Write a sequence for this structure.
């Protein structure tokens, strides 16, 4: 095969992959709805790694006895949709679905089950890390220490349930 | 942090390698000197071409390809360009937010595509710089990984699912590996796919069926001439199959096993395919057991039977060991399934006794193979001997017999008795048929009878701990003596030495066993050390004397 042609094909492929990766974010920015999520303190030992901060949300662990749920047990790795509704200040999880309801209005965020034990469901939304400029992580970390975190996160959620961090807000 | 460290190390490795290959070509070492000199001697008719070839073959050197040396200016330019590229990547990596995201992305892509272009030019446009081009293409592949990771960082694209990034790194460099036949890129892509497989399964908690498909349909067919890459992919598949045992992915391990077997049937020169298929089928059987504990996997008989057939047909002695291991694992899993069905608990002693009998059965197969002139009698004997010896050695520990098993497991008990009876019948038949004539045969049978008898006593009276301990230690001594006598009879120093080793092992183990309970540990070590020193010196002298005598005879 023509070596020059391969060079162009590979270059195009690399550009396309990079563009696709960026456009996946642009899509969420264009179509996503902004919600404000409450964070919870994270074990300081694994909080700040290099240039990104590890975030954990109040909705990362749900109580199956108080949250509307289709099942009482979920196996690890299963994809679920969590319905969130605006609360007093932050958005709260109100229901868990195996499939995104088609005819119901509302905001649904896609998650994967990390663990399910004693009626508690640990979930991962793919927004658990946030890159920061060098040195800024310490400031955020200071606000996440103690028994209650004062850091809030603005998250964009598109119609398919994909989430993206828009802004990390510190007091 | 971790990712950037890996990138830095990889890139430094590539830079040093690329520059070293370019600069040191033709310098320094004797091998390179000889490679350059041989064509010169041939040209001046000092030696003939055949003699030149013979010289190069002697030192395992390839004939030097017509290549060009880079001048220092070019080397410096190249190093400078690489440094600029690295600088850009680290600059963007520091996430300096005053530069717009699009600008940072463009810088990254420019550096990566620049390295790719340079790699292409030096590989195919400029003659004589192929190796340099090859290294630059690898550098471009590494830059590509950095670019993808940093784009994720710049745009805060969720990268907590790291498998996604690894996949986006690996896939786009496959064309370089395949169409440019770049073995470095092939190795890099292969390693990345292995990492991706485990990250995918770990993140999603699901079996990754895509991984074997990618490897079997793309990576392995394109690695026909790339030994390192091929082996990485094979190891990756076996590791993936092994991972299935702990995660109940029985279909995935079956798919990998069948795939590896198909690879072997298509390309029999690569025996690693057969070994890995055999291992993978064993992992499949284990995964099957973890999913359906109460259902014995009778389907396993098909692949294990076929593996035996291929081992004999293609005369691959090493694979026999894997086949035997598969068979033993299969029998144990089947018995465990029956135990589960009939609510029997695990009994350690009965389990070990059964393994010991399985070892004796394998050894018997070696005896039959030797007498009838079949293939691999020695492999059968060594495998069977090792299994039985390890079991006898374990059963000689009083502590193990004390705690071995409270509730009897009838499945293992009757399984062992049936197997033991079959071995007894075989031995009687051999004696009756007059096949046991020579002294070595009789020594072999003595060891077998001792192991069999000792284990049967243990099975029938498990509560008599002291008696069993004495019996099994006596069996161990019989093993040692039989090896010593057999070695002398056959004039085989290795068998003789093995007997001595077993004897020493027995003495040391029992010494530790008995005296470790003493409160005074200093006495234990001093007395033990002196004892081992004297015993070792004495036995070594005797061993050398006998071996010298054997050689003299």
């Amino acid at each position: 095969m023509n070596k020059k042609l391969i060079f162009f094909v590979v270059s195009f492929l690399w550009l396309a992959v990079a563009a696709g990766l960026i456009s996946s974010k642009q899509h969420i920015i264009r179509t996503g709805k902004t919600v404000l999520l409450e964070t919870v303190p994270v074990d300081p030992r694994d909080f700040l790694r290099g240039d990104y901060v590890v975030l954990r949300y109040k909705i990362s662990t749900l109580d199956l006895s108080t949250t509307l749920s289709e099942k009482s047990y979920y196996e690890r790795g299963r994809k679920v949709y969590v319905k969130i509704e605006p609360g007093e200040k932050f958005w709260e999880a109100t229901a868990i679905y195996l499939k995104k309801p088609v005819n119901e209005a509302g905001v649904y965020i896609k998650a994967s089950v990390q663990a399910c034990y004693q009626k508690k469901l640990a979930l991962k939304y793919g927004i658990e890390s946030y890159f920061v400029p060098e040195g800024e992580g310490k400031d955020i970390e200071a606000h996440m220490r103690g028994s209650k975190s004062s850091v809030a996160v603005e998250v964009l959620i598109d119609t398919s349930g994909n989430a993206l961090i828009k802004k990390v807000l510190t007091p | 942090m971790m990712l950037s460290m890996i990138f830095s190390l990889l890139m430094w490795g590539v830079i040093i390698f690329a520059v070293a290959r370019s600069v040191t070509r033709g310098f320094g070492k004797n091998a390179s000197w000889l490679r350059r000199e041989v064509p010169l001697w041939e040209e001046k008719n000092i030696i003939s071409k055949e003699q030149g070839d013979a010289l190069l073959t002697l030192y395992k050197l390839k004939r030097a390809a017509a290549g060009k040396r880079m001048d220092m200016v070019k080397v410096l330019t190249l190093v400078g360009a690489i440094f600029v590229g690295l600088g850009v990547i680290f600059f963007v990596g520091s996430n300096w937010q005053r530069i717009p995201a699009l600008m940072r992305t463009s810088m990254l892509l420019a550096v990566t595509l620049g390295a790719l272009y340079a790699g292409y030019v030096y590989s195919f446009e400029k003659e004589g710089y192929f190796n340099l081009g090859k290294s630059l293409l690898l550098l471009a592949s590494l830059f590509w990984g950095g670019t993808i990771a940093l784009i994720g960082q710049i745009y805060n694209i969720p990268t907590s699912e790291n498998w996604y990034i690894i996949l986006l790194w690996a896939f786009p460099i496959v064309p370089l590996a395949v169409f440019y036949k770049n073995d470095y890129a092939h190795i890099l892509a292969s390693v990345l796919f292995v990492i991706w497989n485990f990250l995918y399964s770990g993140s999603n908690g699901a079996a990754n069926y895509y991984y074997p498909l990618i490897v079997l349909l793309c990576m392995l067919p394109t690695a026909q001439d790339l030994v390192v890459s091929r082996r990485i992919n094979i190891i990756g598949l076996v590791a993936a199959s092994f991972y299935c045992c702990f995660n109940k992915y029985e279909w995935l391990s079956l798919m990998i096993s069948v795939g590896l077997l198909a690879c072997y049937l298509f390309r029999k020169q690569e025996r690693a395919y057969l070994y890995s298929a055999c291992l993978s089928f064993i992992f499949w059987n284990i995964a099957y057991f973890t999913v359906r504990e109460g259902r014995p996997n009778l389907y396993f008989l098909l692949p294990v039977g076929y593996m035996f057939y291929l081992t004999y047909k293609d005369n691959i002695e090493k694979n026999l060991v894997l086949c035997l291991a598969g068979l033993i694992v299969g029998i144990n899993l089947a018995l465990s399934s029956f135990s589960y069905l009939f609510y029997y608990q695990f009994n350690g002693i009965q389990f070990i006794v059964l393994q010991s009998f399985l070892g004796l059965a394998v050894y018997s197969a070696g005896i039959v193979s030797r007498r009838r002139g079949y293939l691999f009698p020695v492999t059968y004997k060594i495998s069977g001997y090792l299994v039985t010896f390890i079991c006898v050695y374990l059963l000689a520990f009083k502590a193990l017999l004390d705690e071995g098993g409270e509730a009897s497991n009838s499945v293992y008990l009757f399984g062992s008795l049936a197997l033991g009876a079959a071995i007894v019948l075989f031995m009687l038949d051999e004696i009756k048929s007059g096949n046991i004539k020579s002294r070595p045969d009789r020594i072999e049978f003595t060891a077998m009878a001792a192991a069999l008898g000792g284990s049967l006593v243990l099975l029938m009276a498990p509560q008599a701990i002291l008696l069993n301990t004495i019996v099994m230690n006596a069996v161990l001594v019989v093993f040692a003596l039989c090896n010593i006598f057999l070695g002398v009879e056959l004039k085989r120093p290795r068998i003789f030495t093995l007997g001595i080793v077993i004897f020493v092992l027995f003495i040391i183990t029992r010494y530790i066993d008995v005296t470790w309970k003493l409160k005074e540990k200093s006495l234990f070590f001093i007395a033990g050390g002196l004892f081992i020193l004297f015993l070792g010196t004495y036995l070594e002298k005797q061993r050398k004397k006998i071996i010298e005598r054997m050689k003299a005879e």
Summary: The interface with chain B takes residues 1, 3-4, 6-7, 9-11, 13-15, 17-18, 21-22, 24-25, 49-52, 75-78, 112-113, 124, 126-134, 163-165 of chain A (CB under 8 Å). The longest strand of chain A covers residues 107-117.
